[in-house]
Structure formats: structure tokens, C-alpha cells
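hey so i finally got around to running the thing on that chain from the lab meeting. sorry it took forever, my laptop kept dying and i had to restart like 3 times. anyway pasting the input first so we r on the same page abt which one it is
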Amino acid sequence: ADIEKQYIRVQAQYEEQQKRVNQLQTDLSTAQEGMKLRDITIGELNGRIKERTETTNIQLQGDKISLKEKEEEIDLLQHKNQVLKEDMKKKDEKLADYEEMKKDFERISQELQEKTKEIDNHATELVAVKERTERRCKEEYERVIQKLNQ
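ok and heres what got predicted. didnt touch it at all, straight out
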């Protein structure tokens, strides 16, 4: 009877252990399926990451080219700006020269007006002297004629 009790107890333990083994095998199968799904998901994610990385790299290359073009455009504009600054400097110098020439012209015009006025005054004096001289000469001529007639 003692052996039968042990046998029943061992049989019950065996059945319990068998249930645990079956449950563990079910859990293992579920875990393996989960691992397969995880591997598939990781593969898909890796594929997406690779695709996005390639797309991003292509965009970066385009951006680099665009950036280089913009830098070249900026360099060209800076060069044009420098040329324009130099042109403005030359034009400012020419304007200063023109202003100086304008002042010289105005000064010379003023001097010319003064000299013209002096010449006009001198000419007026010469005309007056000529008229006086002509009158004296005429008066002298008439005296001489009168003396000759007497």
C-alpha cells in the first residue's frame, strides 16, 4: 500500500511535470513565433532605415550642391558689390574734381566780369578822351583858320 501511494504520488508529480513541460513547450513555440515576427519587423525596420538613409543622403547631396551654388552666387555678388564700391569711389572722386572745376570756373567768370568792367570803364574813358581831343583839335583848327583869314 505504501508503494502504491508513492506510485500514485510520483504518477501525479509526473503528470504535473508533463503539464509544465507541455506549457513550457507552448511558451517556447509562442516565443519562437514572436522572435520570428520580431526578426521580420526588425528586418522591415532596417529596410526602412536603409531606404530613408539613402533618401536623406540623396537629399543631402542635393543640398550640398545647392549650398555650393548659393556660396558661388554669394561670392559673385560680393565681387560685383566690390566693383560697384570701387566705381562709386571713382565717381565720387570725379564729382569732387567736377565741383573743384566748377568753383574754378565761377572764380574765373567773376574775374572775367571784373576785367570786362575795367575794360568797359577804360574804353569809356578813352572815348571821352577822344571826344575831348577831337573837340580841342577842332577848336584849334578853327582858331588857326580864323587867324589865317585875318
